[in-house]
Amino acid sequence: MKAVIIANGDLNNQPHLEPGDLLIAADGGARHCLHLGLTPQIVIGDFDSLDPQDLNTLQQAGAEIIRHPVRKNATDLELALHVARERGATTAIVLGALGARWDQTIANLLLPLSGELTGLAVRLLDGPQELFLAHATDPNGPASGEIHGLPGDTVSLIPLSGDALGVHTQGLEYPLHGETLYFGATRGVSNVLLTPTAAVTVSAGILLIVVIHGSLEGDNP
């Protein structure tokens, strides 16, 4: 099952829902749902970012409300990912997870590494950008490193938590054959997709994979 989670950050994508998808709003993400005319199956959070009237509207429309205390040890998005996994989702597409707060943005990018989310493949979407992790201990195997897009899309491979060892790629303009991407270096930035499907595997370490579908405005730093 696939979960689509709408968080409280900048929403730069329209959710693409299919029959059987589980739609979850993380706190203020429910406002995005109301604006789009969507009723999530689940609304979860401490609701410090959601007007009580909006919450009541969603509850009257049939949404399941899961309330947590304001003083808690997890963000609303983390709570949403946990409930997605508990309800049987194996994939989670997250929208609205990035925004002006760098602390929450970075934390959201790293959430898929939580051991409590093992078995849930998480992808974050932000406009034309798609972000996900591939790591050697991922129980989902090579599928977690599959890249889908159009030839010409930009692909960046950024090592996290130390060097990424034994990196292999297929379908990228600048191939890697069991090489090391060093932590803090930029060798893996701005590769190019050659085929609609490419693959990245890593024997040790963690890679943040960023796919830019089409192009972004602005200069390269």
Describe the structure.
The longest helix has 11 residues, at 76-86. The protein is elongated. The chain has helices at 29-36, 52-60, 76-86, 102-110; strands at 2-6, 22-26, 42-45, 64-67, 91-95, 121-126, 129-135, 146-148, 154-170, 177-181, 191-192, 197-201, 204-212. It has two domains: 1-127, Thiamin pyrophosphokinase, catalytic domain (Rossmann fold); 128-221, Sandwich (Jelly Rolls). By secondary structure, the protein is of the alpha/beta class. Strands 1, 2, 3, 4, 5, 6, 7, 8, 9, 10, 11, 12 and 13 form a 13-stranded mixed β-sheet that branches.
Question: Helix tally?
Answer: 4
Task: Write the CATH homologous superfamily of the largest domain.
Answer: Thiamin pyrophosphokinase, catalytic domain
CATH topology assignment of the largest domain: Rossmann fold
Secondary-structure-based class equals alpha/beta
Kindly state the percentage of residues in helix.
Answer: 10-25%
Q: Number of domains in the coordinates?
A: 2
Backbone CA Rg: 18 Å
What coarse outline follows from CA principal-axis ratios? elongated
The CATH class assignment of the largest domain is: Alpha Beta
CATH architecture of the largest domain: 3-Layer(aba) Sandwich
Report mean pLDDT, rounded to a whole number: 90
β-strand amount = 25-35%
| Biggest pleated-sheet summary | 13 strands, mixed
Low-confidence region ranges? 140-144
Quote the distance from N terminus to C terminus.
39 Å
The sequence of SSEs as H and E is: EEHEHEHEHEEEEEEEE
The count of DSSP E runs of length 2 or more, i.e. the number of strands, is 13
